[in-house]
Amino acid sequence: MRAKITYLITAAVLVVFFVLVGGRAVAMMKLGTPLGIGLGTAALIIPLIGVWFLWKNTEFVRKANKLAATLDAEGALPVDELRRTPAGRIDRDSADEVFAKRRVETEDNPDDWRSWFRLAVAYQDARDTPRARRAMQRAIALHDGKPVRTD
Description:
Elements: H1 2-30, H2 34-74, H3 92-108, H4 113-125, H5 129-144
Helix pairs in contact: 1-2, 2-5, 3-4, 4-5
């Protein structure tokens, strides 16, 4: 729940920023000078890219949460079997062991979105966020019946 609240607050702050920058961009364009129009147009691109990026990330999180809810309803969410340090951090060797199991499971079932979801969680536990994101994107695509890139 804490992560959702943090995400919503961050998204709200970004939206306010986009509105403020967009307002300044429009004000510069209203000056009517070539420099004002050029700078205003350039400044307007920033919030447009930001809105697109925020939308894509929100969709990704929404779809990943939908998969998690489906797995939870099936009783198939990955069990937290990781050892932790006294400070509560995940033990690296433990994360590597779980990751190895998840990788084998995914190699045995490459078309199963559930195994890709569990692999994404293992990547995240191993602190490999880019691969975790790609694995989750693959799980989402497989779940939605969309074509999956094999790179």
